[in-house]
């Protein structure tokens, strides 16, 4: 029986992880729970799963260090949103624990550091994003050496068919109305701007060691195909399932086995699938992410930090939808060629980028910092 540490247990990823554990009590148990807030809910979950090890954000990074050390888990699911999830990932890997990773910032901000720790501690990093989970599985089945290109699908978000003029006037309420996935507010906005897909391109470059030129994005509104790989002979192979995050979480928890799933199997009959090229001119955060993936160093840190600041402003009603991308673009005009080979350097670059993004927002909106 695998013992699971769930970081971000009250969020979307954490809640769906617990759904799987409920459904498979002979295979999994909860070794530890961590959340940013909602003590009452965590207390109820601890009682339900018979788990004495719990933690809240107020306990800080030292609390997470102690939880990781004492809980005795075999694998941790990191569903913490944003840059706050980076240090917990590092602590998990330093302890030699496998990491089921849904936190993009771990890879986007600090991949060279994280990869080195995982290799030293012989710990596995198993992606939980539906797209990267699909690539991870397809590479295992096709053989990494046979694959020439990765194709990552994007739903296109709620504004896929909007004209440039319409995009100037979209509201927060519209941006939070994702057509296929139910997610947190920040990632839902990122899906609408295609920043999320840009972050996933950066992740794919790093997780699977592919150049940006060998990673393509295709818009697939139905979200049934999660990613594809193209082998050297030109053939495409796809992973297809209903849009349900429990599937990639299930795959991470059962790795390296391929277990019988209790989830309803996908049926092709009656389904329709369509595909479109992305519109980089209308959704500039995607080409900006590609540019950052090529440049490397602290550019990816700056992209992520500036986007977090801009999306926070949009969620607070302090900037418009187009100003999210404009803020990131303005931030990236600065020099981010410095290497960040320690966590301290990563957070220093992150802080600098946040400050630059905040200044850019003031200029764009005419507001005050």
Q: What features would you describe in this structure?
A:
This protein has 15 helices and ten strands. With 369 residues, the chain is an alpha/beta fold. The chain has a six-stranded parallel beta sheet, with helices on both faces. Helix 4 (86-94) packs parallel to helix 5 (104-121), helix 9 packs across helix 13 and helix 13 (299-315) packs antiparallel against helix 14. It is globular. It starts with a strand and ends with a helix. The mean pLDDT is 94.
- Placed side by side, the strands forming the largest sheet appear as 3-2-1-4-5-6
Compute the number of helices: 15
End-to-end separation = 51 Å
Total DSSP E strands: 10
- Topology as H/E string? EHEHEHEHEHEHEHHHHEEEHHHHH
Task: Estimate the mean pLDDT confidence.
Answer: 94
Task: Report the structural category.
Answer: alpha/beta
- Uncertain stretches of 5 or more adjacent residues: none
- Form type: globular
Give the key terms.
single chain; 369 residues; alpha/beta; six-stranded parallel sheet; four-stranded mixed sheet; 48% helix; globular
List the helices and strands and how they pair.
Blueprint: E1 2-7, H1 12-23, E2 28-35, H2 39-49, E3 54-56, H3 60-70, E4 75-78, H4 86-94, E5 98-101, H5 104-121, E6 125-127, H6 130-142, E7 147-154, H7 164-167, H8 172-175, H9 185-193, H10 195-208, E8 215-219, E9 225-231, E10 236-240, H11 246-254, H12 285-295, H13 299-315, H14 321-332, H15 343-365
Parallel strand pairs: 1-2, 1-4, 2-3, 4-5, 5-6, 7-8
Antiparallel strand pairs: 7-9, 9-10
Helix pairs in contact: 3-4, 4-5, 5-10, 6-10, 9-13, 10-12, 13-14, 13-15, 14-15
